[in-house]
Specification:
By secondary structure, the chain is mostly helical. It is built from 7 helices and no strands. Helix content is about 75%, strand content about 0%.
């Protein structure tokens, strides 16, 4: 007997789930999204999360917005996508507007600039920690964990050291890697077919 994978039961649950995600995600929500959707709610497995996150990154727009639209649409169609989007954006928008009003004229404050730099460092650490946490899921990747690690290193060097624009890295390295992975998947299918 198979058990159905957990999923949002209603549009209301979907809205509040993404509202909660958005309210936790200062400076980047990758770690929060992975913890909430994979570990706590179990709406996605680690492998599904990695696949959906990869698609969300390639699409234009903010990654987490793309992901919330995909998940909402998957469970409730267009209404679900729009509900998840509303959950992701409504309260953060109100908070940002309130903070903008409260800090009007304080943008040049060294204390505020230092606080923002500190938040950026914490966000980078959270993203790195999430990457390490998701690394075991690469064992099932057709390219192998070693190749994926090498691709991460190459991408880091291209973007952080050589300052190659992200679009060129995606078009060049991303396209080549996608073609390679598709070829390996086709070979694996051919070997399974008698």
């Amino acid at each position: 007997m198979t058990t159905e994978h957990p999923h949002p039961e209603s549009l209301r649950e979907l809205f509040w789930a993404f509202t909660w995600l958005a309210l936790q995600g200062f400076g980047g929500v990758l770690a929060v999204v992975q913890r909430e959707l994979v570990d706590k709610r179990q709406w996605l497995t680690r492998e599904q999360f990695i696949e959906d996150w990869a698609v969300a990154q390639v699409l234009p727009g903010p990654n987490v917005v793309n992901l919330c639209l995909m998940i909402g649409d998957r469970h409730f169609g267009v209404r679900g996508g729009l509900t998840a989007l509303a959950g992701m954006l409504t309260f953060p928008l109100l908070i940002v507007l309130a903070l903008a009003w409260l800090t009007l004229g304080a943008a040049d404050s060294p204390q505020l600039q230092g606080a923002l730099r500190g938040m950026g460092a914490v966000a980078a650490g959270m993203i790195a920690a999430t990457g390490f946490k998701l690394f075991p899921a690469l064992k099932q990747n057709v390219l192998s964990a070693t190749v994926c690690t090498a691709l991460v290193a190459i991408t880091f060097v291209l973007i952080a050291v050589l300052r190659v624009p992200l679009i060129w890295v995606l078009l060049g390295l991303g396209s080549a890697t996608s073609l390679w992975a598709n070829r390996l998947l086709a070979q694996a299918r051919a070997q399974r077919t008698p």
